[in-house]
Amino acid sequence: MSCFWVTYYALDPQRKYRLNNGNFARKTVIYELVAYVTPLVLIVLGFVFSGKIKQIFHKLYRIDYKMNYLSTNYTNHRRHKLVIVSYTTIHTCIYLVIITLHFLANPASLLSIVLTIRYELYMVVFCAECLAVLWLVWIRFTKLGTVFRMYFPTTPTSGGFLTTTAPGHTAETAVCSEKEQLTVLRQIKILHDKLNDVVELVNYCFSVQITFCVGLCFVIGVVCSFGLFRAFIYRNELFYMGVLNFIWYMYYLFFVLFFIAVGSKITREGKRIGVLVHKAINCSTSTAVINELNIFSQQLLHRSPVITCGLFVYDWTLLYTMIGATATYLIILIQFDVSFPNLVNVNGTATSPGV
Question: Which DSSP helix (H) or strand (E) runs through 19?
Answer without folding.
Answer: none
